[in-house]
Amino acid sequence: MTGGKDDRAQSTTIGFVLLVAITIAGAGAVVGLGGQALEDSRSTSTVDRVENAMTQFDSRTSMVALGDSSSQRVEFGDGGDGTYGVEEDAGWIRVTHHNYSDGDDHEVYNESLGAVRYTEGDTTVAYQGGGVWRSDGGGSMMVSPPEVTYRDATLTLPVVRTVGSGGAGGAPTAYVRKEGATESIYPNSSRSYPDPDGRPYLNPVRNGTVVLTVHSEYYEAWGRYFDTRTEGNVTIYHGNRTAHVELETGGDVGDFRLPSRSNAVEARGIADGHSVDDFSITLESDNGNFNNMYFAFHGESDGKEYEMMIHTPSGTNPKCSGGEVQQTSPIVYDILYRGDGHDDVHAWTNDSVETDSGPIRFQCDGNDVELAVDFTGGTNLTYGDHTVSNDDLERDWDDQINDSVHFGHEQDGEPMDVEDGNETTSRHLVRHYMANLAPDIDLVVYYSTGGNGNGLRLNNDMSYGSLRYETAQGPQYITYLHVTENRVRVEFR
Fold first, then answer.
1. Is residue 12 part of a domain?
2. What whole-number distance in Å separates Cα of residue 490 and Cα of residue 88?
3. N or C: which end of the chain has fewer CB within 10 A?
4. pLDDT, mean over the chain
5. What global pTM score does this model have?
6. What is the rounded distance in angstroms from the CA atom of residue 237 to the CA atom of residue 226?
7. CA 92 to the chain's CA centroid
8. CA dist., res. 242 & res. 203, Å (int)
9. Whole-angstrom Cα distance, residue 183 to residue 229?
10. Which Pfam families match (predicted)?
Protein backbone atom coordinates (compact mmCIF):
# COMPACT_ATOMS: atom_id res chain seq x y z
CA MET A 1 0.00 0.00 0.00
CA THR A 2 1.30 3.43 -0.88
CA GLY A 3 1.70 6.29 1.65
CA GLY A 4 1.70 4.05 4.82
CA LYS A 5 4.93 5.33 6.32
CA ASP A 6 3.98 8.98 5.70
CA ASP A 7 0.57 8.48 7.40
CA ARG A 8 2.17 6.89 10.46
CA ALA A 9 4.72 9.68 10.70
CA GLN A 10 1.98 12.30 10.43
CA SER A 11 -0.12 10.55 13.13
CA THR A 12 2.86 10.43 15.47
CA THR A 13 3.46 14.14 14.99
CA ILE A 14 -0.23 15.02 15.63
CA GLY A 15 -0.32 12.82 18.75
CA PHE A 16 2.78 14.48 20.13
CA VAL A 17 1.30 17.93 19.54
CA LEU A 18 -1.96 16.94 21.23
CA LEU A 19 -0.11 15.49 24.22
CA VAL A 20 1.90 18.66 24.62
CA ALA A 21 -1.28 20.75 24.33
CA ILE A 22 -3.10 18.68 26.96
CA THR A 23 -0.10 18.82 29.28
CA ILE A 24 0.12 22.59 28.93
CA ALA A 25 -3.64 22.99 29.46
CA GLY A 26 -3.55 20.72 32.50
CA ALA A 27 -0.59 22.55 33.91
CA GLY A 28 -2.42 25.84 33.36
CA ALA A 29 -5.50 24.55 35.16
CA VAL A 30 -3.40 23.29 38.05
CA VAL A 31 -1.62 26.59 38.24
CA GLY A 32 -4.94 28.46 38.05
CA LEU A 33 -6.64 26.34 40.71
CA GLY A 34 -3.58 26.37 42.84
CA GLY A 35 -3.37 30.12 42.54
CA GLN A 36 -7.02 30.50 43.55
CA ALA A 37 -6.57 28.12 46.47
CA LEU A 38 -3.50 30.06 47.51
CA GLU A 39 -5.45 33.31 47.27
CA ASP A 40 -8.35 31.85 49.31
CA SER A 41 -5.89 30.54 51.88
CA ARG A 42 -4.18 33.90 52.06
CA SER A 43 -7.52 35.69 52.50
CA THR A 44 -8.64 33.24 55.20
CA SER A 45 -5.35 33.63 57.00
CA THR A 46 -5.68 37.41 56.86
CA VAL A 47 -9.22 37.38 58.26
CA ASP A 48 -8.14 34.99 61.04
CA ARG A 49 -5.36 37.41 61.97
CA VAL A 50 -7.84 40.29 61.92
CA GLU A 51 -10.21 38.36 64.24
CA ASN A 52 -7.37 37.79 66.71
CA ALA A 53 -6.35 41.44 66.55
CA MET A 54 -9.97 42.59 66.93
CA THR A 55 -10.40 40.34 69.99
CA GLN A 56 -7.30 41.94 71.51
CA PHE A 57 -8.77 45.35 70.62
CA ASP A 58 -12.01 44.30 72.40
CA SER A 59 -10.10 43.47 75.59
CA ARG A 60 -8.09 46.68 75.56
CA THR A 61 -11.13 48.83 74.78
CA SER A 62 -13.09 47.30 77.66
CA MET A 63 -10.29 48.39 80.00
CA VAL A 64 -10.75 51.96 78.81
CA ALA A 65 -14.55 51.93 78.67
CA LEU A 66 -15.04 50.40 82.11
CA GLY A 67 -12.44 52.46 83.94
CA ASP A 68 -9.32 50.32 84.30
CA SER A 69 -7.28 52.47 81.93
CA SER A 70 -7.48 55.98 80.48
CA SER A 71 -6.09 54.95 77.08
CA GLN A 72 -4.77 51.98 75.12
CA ARG A 73 -3.09 51.30 71.78
CA VAL A 74 -3.55 48.20 69.65
CA GLU A 75 -1.44 47.23 66.66
CA PHE A 76 -3.41 45.52 63.94
CA GLY A 77 -1.59 43.09 61.66
CA ASP A 78 -1.44 43.38 57.90
CA GLY A 79 -4.99 43.59 56.62
CA GLY A 80 -4.09 42.60 53.08
CA ASP A 81 -6.52 44.09 50.61
CA GLY A 82 -8.96 45.00 53.39
CA THR A 83 -9.39 48.31 55.20
CA TYR A 84 -10.12 49.39 58.78
CA GLY A 85 -12.53 52.15 59.73
CA VAL A 86 -14.47 53.78 62.59
CA GLU A 87 -18.24 54.15 62.01
CA GLU A 88 -19.86 55.87 64.98
CA ASP A 89 -23.39 55.61 63.56
CA ALA A 90 -23.26 51.85 62.94
CA GLY A 91 -26.16 50.19 64.78
CA TRP A 92 -28.08 51.21 67.89
CA ILE A 93 -29.31 49.77 71.17
CA ARG A 94 -32.59 50.46 72.96
CA VAL A 95 -34.04 49.56 76.37
CA THR A 96 -37.83 49.83 76.71
CA HIS A 97 -40.00 49.25 79.76
CA HIS A 98 -43.28 47.96 78.35
CA ASN A 99 -46.46 48.43 80.38
CA TYR A 100 -44.62 50.12 83.21
CA SER A 101 -47.92 51.66 84.30
CA ASP A 102 -51.44 50.73 83.17
CA GLY A 103 -50.50 49.83 79.59
CA ASP A 104 -47.99 52.66 79.08
CA ASP A 105 -44.54 52.07 77.55
CA HIS A 106 -41.39 54.06 78.31
CA GLU A 107 -38.09 54.22 76.45
CA VAL A 108 -35.36 54.08 79.07
CA TYR A 109 -32.42 54.31 76.66
CA ASN A 110 -31.82 54.58 72.90
CA GLU A 111 -28.44 55.46 71.43
CA SER A 112 -26.11 54.48 68.59
CA LEU A 113 -23.46 51.82 69.23
CA GLY A 114 -20.86 52.62 66.60
CA ALA A 115 -18.27 50.10 65.40
CA VAL A 116 -14.66 49.55 64.44
CA ARG A 117 -14.87 47.53 61.25
CA TYR A 118 -12.48 45.64 58.97
CA THR A 119 -13.83 45.09 55.44
CA GLU A 120 -12.53 42.91 52.63
CA GLY A 121 -15.03 42.15 49.88
CA ASP A 122 -18.17 40.62 51.43
CA THR A 123 -16.37 39.82 54.68
CA THR A 124 -16.43 42.14 57.67
CA VAL A 125 -15.06 41.74 61.17
CA ALA A 126 -16.23 44.35 63.66
CA TYR A 127 -15.95 45.44 67.25
CA GLN A 128 -19.39 46.64 68.41
CA GLY A 129 -21.05 46.99 71.80
CA GLY A 130 -18.14 45.34 73.59
CA GLY A 131 -18.17 42.24 71.36
CA VAL A 132 -16.53 41.08 68.14
CA TRP A 133 -18.68 39.97 65.21
CA ARG A 134 -18.12 38.59 61.73
CA SER A 135 -20.22 38.54 58.57
CA ASP A 136 -19.44 36.93 55.22
CA GLY A 137 -22.45 38.39 53.45
CA GLY A 138 -24.73 35.44 54.21
CA GLY A 139 -25.37 35.85 57.94
CA SER A 140 -23.31 36.71 61.00
CA MET A 141 -21.53 35.03 63.88
CA MET A 142 -20.16 36.09 67.25
CA VAL A 143 -16.39 35.95 67.71
CA SER A 144 -16.36 37.20 71.32
CA PRO A 145 -19.35 38.16 73.51
CA PRO A 146 -20.58 41.75 74.08
CA GLU A 147 -20.65 43.63 77.37
CA VAL A 148 -24.12 42.35 78.23
CA THR A 149 -24.60 39.94 81.13
CA TYR A 150 -27.66 38.33 82.67
CA ARG A 151 -27.49 36.44 85.94
CA ASP A 152 -29.92 35.79 88.83
CA ALA A 153 -32.69 37.97 87.34
CA THR A 154 -30.22 40.86 86.93
CA LEU A 155 -29.53 42.41 83.52
CA THR A 156 -26.25 44.34 83.46
CA LEU A 157 -25.73 46.48 80.38
CA PRO A 158 -22.63 48.69 80.27
CA VAL A 159 -23.26 50.18 76.83
CA VAL A 160 -19.93 50.80 75.06
CA ARG A 161 -20.40 53.47 72.40
CA THR A 162 -17.65 53.89 69.80
CA VAL A 163 -17.09 57.37 68.41
CA GLY A 164 -14.59 58.67 65.86
CA SER A 165 -14.11 58.65 62.11
CA GLY A 166 -11.60 57.82 59.43
CA GLY A 167 -9.80 54.61 58.58
CA ALA A 168 -6.64 53.01 57.30
CA GLY A 169 -5.26 50.11 55.29
CA GLY A 170 -2.16 48.00 55.72
CA ALA A 171 -1.18 47.33 59.34
CA PRO A 172 -2.40 50.37 61.30
CA THR A 173 -2.31 51.13 65.01
CA ALA A 174 -5.55 52.00 66.84
CA TYR A 175 -5.54 54.48 69.72
CA VAL A 176 -8.42 54.24 72.23
CA ARG A 177 -9.25 56.79 74.92
CA LYS A 178 -12.17 57.51 77.24
CA GLU A 179 -14.65 60.10 75.97
CA GLY A 180 -16.25 61.74 78.99
CA ALA A 181 -17.31 60.12 82.25
CA THR A 182 -19.42 56.98 82.62
CA GLU A 183 -23.10 57.96 82.76
CA SER A 184 -25.50 56.03 84.99
CA ILE A 185 -28.78 55.48 83.15
CA TYR A 186 -30.61 52.97 85.39
CA PRO A 187 -30.88 53.02 88.36
CA ASN A 188 -30.70 56.79 88.68
CA SER A 189 -32.87 58.66 91.17
CA SER A 190 -32.55 61.89 89.15
CA ARG A 191 -34.33 60.26 86.18
CA SER A 192 -38.00 59.31 86.30
CA TYR A 193 -40.87 57.73 84.43
CA PRO A 194 -43.41 60.12 82.87
CA ASP A 195 -46.20 59.06 85.23
CA PRO A 196 -48.10 61.44 87.53
CA ASP A 197 -46.01 60.39 90.53
CA GLY A 198 -42.70 60.88 88.72
CA ARG A 199 -41.54 57.41 89.78
CA PRO A 200 -37.70 57.43 89.66
CA TYR A 201 -35.50 54.91 87.88
CA LEU A 202 -34.97 52.59 90.85
CA ASN A 203 -34.67 48.86 91.39
CA PRO A 204 -36.39 46.47 91.67
CA VAL A 205 -37.97 46.91 88.24
CA ARG A 206 -41.73 46.60 88.63
CA ASN A 207 -44.65 45.93 86.30
CA GLY A 208 -44.67 44.85 82.67
CA THR A 209 -41.62 43.66 80.77
CA VAL A 210 -38.16 45.00 79.90
CA VAL A 211 -37.16 44.71 76.23
CA LEU A 212 -33.58 45.02 74.98
CA THR A 213 -33.39 45.70 71.22
CA VAL A 214 -30.27 45.85 69.02
CA HIS A 215 -30.18 47.04 65.41
CA SER A 216 -27.00 45.89 63.71
CA GLU A 217 -25.48 44.29 60.64
CA TYR A 218 -24.80 41.41 63.04
CA TYR A 219 -28.37 41.25 64.43
CA GLU A 220 -28.70 37.48 63.92
CA ALA A 221 -25.62 36.81 66.03
CA TRP A 222 -26.88 39.25 68.70
CA GLY A 223 -30.18 37.33 68.77
CA ARG A 224 -28.42 33.97 69.18
CA TYR A 225 -26.40 35.45 72.05
CA PHE A 226 -29.59 36.60 73.79
CA ASP A 227 -31.09 33.17 73.28
CA THR A 228 -28.18 31.36 74.90
CA ARG A 229 -27.98 33.70 77.89
CA THR A 230 -31.67 33.96 78.85
CA GLU A 231 -34.98 32.17 78.50
CA GLY A 232 -36.72 35.42 77.68
CA ASN A 233 -38.75 35.86 74.52
CA VAL A 234 -36.13 36.37 71.78
CA THR A 235 -37.32 37.67 68.41
CA ILE A 236 -35.29 38.37 65.25
CA TYR A 237 -36.69 40.76 62.65
CA HIS A 238 -34.96 40.36 59.30
CA GLY A 239 -36.88 43.24 57.72
CA ASN A 240 -35.32 45.93 59.92
CA ARG A 241 -32.26 43.93 60.99
CA THR A 242 -33.02 43.92 64.70
CA ALA A 243 -32.94 41.38 67.51
CA HIS A 244 -34.71 41.80 70.80
CA VAL A 245 -35.16 39.91 74.06
CA GLU A 246 -38.10 40.46 76.38
CA LEU A 247 -37.83 39.70 80.11
CA GLU A 248 -40.72 39.57 82.57
CA THR A 249 -40.37 41.84 85.58
CA GLY A 250 -40.11 39.96 88.82
CA GLY A 251 -40.10 40.95 92.46
CA ASP A 252 -42.77 42.83 94.34
CA VAL A 253 -45.30 44.72 92.27
CA GLY A 254 -45.61 46.98 95.31
CA ASP A 255 -47.93 49.98 95.29
CA PHE A 256 -49.96 50.54 92.15
CA ARG A 257 -52.54 52.98 90.85
CA LEU A 258 -55.80 51.18 90.12
CA PRO A 259 -56.00 50.24 86.42
CA SER A 260 -59.06 51.27 84.47
CA ARG A 261 -61.78 48.73 83.78
CA SER A 262 -60.64 45.74 81.65
CA ASN A 263 -56.98 46.56 82.30
CA ALA A 264 -54.84 44.51 84.65
CA VAL A 265 -52.44 44.46 87.53
CA GLU A 266 -49.67 42.22 86.20
CA ALA A 267 -48.17 39.76 88.68
CA ARG A 268 -45.06 38.16 87.22
CA GLY A 269 -42.67 35.62 88.70
CA ILE A 270 -44.71 34.61 91.75
CA ALA A 271 -42.78 32.00 93.72
CA ASP A 272 -44.20 28.53 94.39
CA GLY A 273 -46.60 28.02 97.27
CA HIS A 274 -48.50 30.60 99.30
CA SER A 275 -46.07 33.40 98.49
CA VAL A 276 -48.49 36.37 98.28
CA ASP A 277 -47.91 38.49 101.39
CA ASP A 278 -50.12 41.49 100.70
CA PHE A 279 -52.96 42.22 98.29
CA SER A 280 -55.10 45.23 99.16
CA ILE A 281 -56.91 48.12 97.47
CA THR A 282 -58.44 51.46 98.42
CA LEU A 283 -61.32 52.65 96.22
CA GLU A 284 -62.50 56.25 95.93
CA SER A 285 -65.63 57.37 94.10
CA ASP A 286 -66.01 60.51 92.01
CA ASN A 287 -69.44 61.20 93.45
CA GLY A 288 -68.86 59.77 96.93
CA ASN A 289 -71.44 57.08 96.23
CA PHE A 290 -70.87 53.34 96.73
CA ASN A 291 -74.47 52.37 96.10
CA ASN A 292 -74.94 48.98 94.39
CA MET A 293 -71.27 48.56 93.40
CA TYR A 294 -69.80 45.40 91.87
CA PHE A 295 -66.01 45.34 91.89
CA ALA A 296 -63.83 42.36 90.97
CA PHE A 297 -60.38 41.14 90.07
CA HIS A 298 -60.36 38.26 87.62
CA GLY A 299 -57.29 36.14 86.88
CA GLU A 300 -56.73 33.41 84.30
CA SER A 301 -53.73 31.15 83.67
CA ASP A 302 -53.34 27.81 81.84
CA GLY A 303 -57.09 27.18 81.78
CA LYS A 304 -57.59 28.02 85.47
CA GLU A 305 -59.78 30.98 86.48
CA TYR A 306 -60.13 32.95 89.67
CA GLU A 307 -62.41 35.82 90.66
CA MET A 308 -62.91 37.79 93.85
CA MET A 309 -65.95 40.08 93.92
CA ILE A 310 -66.97 42.83 96.34
CA HIS A 311 -70.62 43.93 96.21
CA THR A 312 -72.07 46.88 98.09
CA PRO A 313 -75.88 46.38 98.11
CA SER A 314 -78.44 49.02 97.13
CA GLY A 315 -78.74 51.71 99.76
CA THR A 316 -75.03 51.67 100.67
CA ASN A 317 -74.26 55.38 100.97
CA PRO A 318 -71.79 56.11 103.77
CA LYS A 319 -70.91 59.70 104.71
CA CYS A 320 -68.02 61.37 106.50
CA SER A 321 -68.67 63.65 109.45
CA GLY A 322 -65.93 64.96 111.68
CA GLY A 323 -63.47 62.49 110.23
CA GLU A 324 -65.73 59.56 111.10
CA VAL A 325 -67.75 57.39 108.70
CA GLN A 326 -71.51 57.43 109.23
CA GLN A 327 -74.16 54.97 107.93
CA THR A 328 -71.89 52.01 107.18
CA SER A 329 -73.60 48.90 105.80
CA PRO A 330 -72.58 45.23 105.49
CA ILE A 331 -71.30 44.18 102.07
CA VAL A 332 -70.90 40.90 100.13
CA TYR A 333 -67.58 39.20 99.40
CA ASP A 334 -67.36 36.20 97.02
CA ILE A 335 -64.36 34.17 95.87
CA LEU A 336 -64.69 31.71 92.96
CA TYR A 337 -62.27 29.33 91.29
CA ARG A 338 -62.38 27.03 88.28
CA GLY A 339 -59.64 24.44 87.86
CA ASP A 340 -58.58 22.66 84.70
CA GLY A 341 -62.16 21.79 83.72
CA HIS A 342 -65.80 22.67 84.34
CA ASP A 343 -66.07 19.81 86.84
CA ASP A 344 -63.69 21.58 89.28
CA VAL A 345 -65.47 24.69 90.55
CA HIS A 346 -65.13 26.20 94.04
CA ALA A 347 -67.23 28.97 95.59
CA TRP A 348 -66.88 30.88 98.86
CA THR A 349 -69.03 33.69 100.26
CA ASN A 350 -69.67 36.06 103.11
CA ASP A 351 -72.90 38.00 102.56
CA SER A 352 -72.66 40.24 105.62
CA VAL A 353 -69.14 41.64 105.99
CA GLU A 354 -69.21 44.47 108.54
CA THR A 355 -67.53 47.64 107.23
CA ASP A 356 -67.13 49.89 110.27
CA SER A 357 -63.65 48.46 110.97
CA GLY A 358 -61.45 45.49 110.15
CA PRO A 359 -59.83 44.32 106.88
CA ILE A 360 -62.81 45.53 104.78
CA ARG A 361 -64.07 48.93 105.87
CA PHE A 362 -65.26 52.36 104.84
CA GLN A 363 -62.92 55.15 105.94
CA CYS A 364 -62.58 58.91 105.58
CA ASP A 365 -60.03 60.83 103.56
CA GLY A 366 -60.96 64.36 104.60
CA ASN A 367 -64.61 64.60 103.59
CA ASP A 368 -64.32 61.83 101.01
CA VAL A 369 -65.36 58.25 101.71
CA GLU A 370 -63.05 55.39 100.69
CA LEU A 371 -63.56 51.64 100.70
CA ALA A 372 -60.45 49.81 101.91
CA VAL A 373 -60.27 46.08 101.11
CA ASP A 374 -57.47 43.85 102.39
CA PHE A 375 -57.88 40.64 100.41
CA THR A 376 -55.11 39.06 102.48
CA GLY A 377 -56.84 40.00 105.71
CA GLY A 378 -58.78 37.84 108.16
CA THR A 379 -62.30 38.08 106.69
CA ASN A 380 -64.05 34.69 107.01
CA LEU A 381 -65.79 33.07 104.03
CA THR A 382 -67.92 29.91 103.87
CA TYR A 383 -67.58 27.20 101.23
CA GLY A 384 -70.48 26.02 99.10
CA ASP A 385 -72.03 28.89 97.12
CA HIS A 386 -71.72 32.49 96.01
CA THR A 387 -74.08 35.35 96.85
CA VAL A 388 -73.61 37.60 93.81
CA SER A 389 -75.74 36.45 90.85
CA ASN A 390 -74.10 35.18 87.68
CA ASP A 391 -75.50 38.17 85.79
CA ASP A 392 -73.38 40.53 87.91
CA LEU A 393 -70.18 38.50 88.05
CA GLU A 394 -67.48 39.32 85.52
CA ARG A 395 -67.23 35.67 84.35
CA ASP A 396 -69.75 32.85 83.89
CA TRP A 397 -69.93 30.68 87.03
CA ASP A 398 -73.01 28.57 86.18
CA ASP A 399 -71.14 25.26 86.59
CA GLN A 400 -71.96 22.85 89.39
CA ILE A 401 -69.90 23.62 92.50
CA ASN A 402 -67.85 20.74 93.92
CA ASP A 403 -69.29 19.11 97.04
CA SER A 404 -65.78 18.86 98.48
CA VAL A 405 -62.22 19.80 97.46
CA HIS A 406 -58.70 19.04 98.58
CA PHE A 407 -56.14 21.80 99.22
CA GLY A 408 -52.67 20.31 98.85
CA HIS A 409 -50.09 23.01 99.55
CA GLU A 410 -47.88 23.02 102.62
CA GLN A 411 -48.84 26.41 104.13
CA ASP A 412 -51.80 27.92 106.04
CA GLY A 413 -52.90 24.63 107.54
CA GLU A 414 -52.78 22.65 104.30
CA PRO A 415 -53.07 19.87 103.20
CA MET A 416 -56.76 19.97 104.11
CA ASP A 417 -60.13 18.77 102.84
CA VAL A 418 -62.93 21.29 102.39
CA GLU A 419 -66.66 20.49 102.48
CA ASP A 420 -69.88 22.45 102.23
CA GLY A 421 -70.19 24.81 105.20
CA ASN A 422 -66.49 24.91 106.10
CA GLU A 423 -64.95 28.33 106.83
CA THR A 424 -61.52 29.84 106.25
CA THR A 425 -60.04 33.31 105.87
CA SER A 426 -59.76 35.43 102.76
CA ARG A 427 -55.98 35.47 103.33
CA HIS A 428 -55.82 31.69 103.08
CA LEU A 429 -57.99 31.59 99.94
CA VAL A 430 -56.21 34.39 98.07
CA ARG A 431 -52.81 32.88 98.80
CA HIS A 432 -54.01 29.37 97.83
CA TYR A 433 -55.74 30.25 94.57
CA MET A 434 -53.06 32.66 93.38
CA ALA A 435 -50.53 29.87 94.02
CA ASN A 436 -52.64 27.65 91.72
CA LEU A 437 -52.42 30.25 88.91
CA ALA A 438 -48.79 31.31 89.49
CA PRO A 439 -46.19 32.23 88.36
CA ASP A 440 -47.75 34.80 85.97
CA ILE A 441 -51.24 36.24 86.47
CA ASP A 442 -53.00 39.21 84.85
CA LEU A 443 -55.46 40.44 87.50
CA VAL A 444 -58.05 42.18 85.32
CA VAL A 445 -60.17 44.93 86.90
CA TYR A 446 -63.95 44.77 86.51
CA TYR A 447 -66.60 47.03 88.01
CA SER A 448 -70.16 48.14 87.41
CA THR A 449 -72.94 49.82 89.33
CA GLY A 450 -75.66 47.33 88.46
CA GLY A 451 -79.31 48.37 88.34
CA ASN A 452 -79.93 51.77 86.74
CA GLY A 453 -76.26 52.79 86.84
CA ASN A 454 -76.75 55.69 89.29
CA GLY A 455 -74.23 54.35 91.79
CA LEU A 456 -70.47 54.18 91.85
CA ARG A 457 -68.22 56.16 89.53
CA LEU A 458 -64.71 55.09 90.45
CA ASN A 459 -61.93 57.66 90.51
CA ASN A 460 -59.06 55.58 89.16
CA ASP A 461 -56.48 58.32 89.71
CA MET A 462 -57.30 58.42 93.43
CA SER A 463 -57.81 54.66 93.85
CA TYR A 464 -54.76 52.53 94.51
CA GLY A 465 -53.54 49.21 95.81
CA SER A 466 -50.63 47.09 96.95
CA LEU A 467 -49.47 43.65 95.82
CA ARG A 468 -46.38 41.99 97.27
CA TYR A 469 -45.14 38.44 96.94
CA GLU A 470 -42.01 36.33 97.05
CA THR A 471 -40.26 36.21 93.70
CA ALA A 472 -39.62 33.16 91.55
CA GLN A 473 -36.11 32.74 90.22
CA GLY A 474 -35.72 31.89 86.55
CA PRO A 475 -33.86 32.97 83.41
CA GLN A 476 -36.96 34.64 81.92
CA TYR A 477 -37.37 37.18 84.75
CA ILE A 478 -35.74 40.50 85.52
CA THR A 479 -35.68 42.06 88.97
CA TYR A 480 -32.66 44.37 88.73
CA LEU A 481 -31.61 46.49 85.75
CA HIS A 482 -28.19 48.19 85.52
CA VAL A 483 -27.51 50.38 82.46
CA THR A 484 -24.53 52.69 82.01
CA GLU A 485 -23.21 54.57 78.98
CA ASN A 486 -19.46 54.40 78.32
CA ARG A 487 -18.05 56.32 75.33
CA VAL A 488 -14.66 55.59 73.78
CA ARG A 489 -12.94 57.46 70.96
CA VAL A 490 -10.94 55.44 68.42
CA GLU A 491 -8.36 56.78 65.96
CA PHE A 492 -6.24 54.91 63.40
CA ARG A 493 -2.69 56.00 62.60
1. no
2. 10
3. N
4. 88
5. 0.70
6. 14
7. 18
8. 27
9. 25
10. DUF7289, DUF7308
